[in-house]
Amino acid sequence: QVQLVESGGGLVQAGESLRLSCAASGSIFSTAVLGWYRQAPGKQREWVATIGLGSNTHYADSVRGRFTISRDNFKNTVYLQMNSLKPEDTAVYYCKLGSGWGQGTQVTVSS
User: Fold this and answer.
1) How many C-alpha atoms does 90 have within 13 Å on its Cβ side?
2) HSE-CB of 92 using CA atoms within 13 angstroms
3) Where in the chain does DSSP place strands (E)?
4) pLDDT 10s digits, 13-27
5) What order of strands is seen across the sheet that includes strand 18-24?
6) pLDDT digits (tens, 9 = 90+) for 26-73
């Protein structure tokens, strides 16, 4: 079973940046589609971004142009670079590989 561990969350002010990392165990990483999701207090978990096998990427409208997803298949790690953060980006961010989820990392953006 793949294990996913997110890191890089924190408290920042609006307009600042953060980079999230998600390290995965297991040998299927390089053949997997990877995703980032987030869940704000009182809201459902929502999709943020996906990166495919050929590093093709897709973004939710709310983050396109500000967030960048990338992967390092040698390090079994997927990243989410978040720029120009807004208070509405405040959420717990989760990475997803197949049916597996990480434990999440908190991102808080103050106004």
Assistant:
1) 12
2) 12
3) 4-7, 10-13, 18-24, 34-39, 46-51, 57-59, 67-72, 77-82, 91-97, 100-101, 105-110
4) 999 999 999 999 877
5) 4-7, 18-24, 77-82, 67-72
6) 777 878 899 999 999 999 999 999 999 888 999 999 999 999 999 999
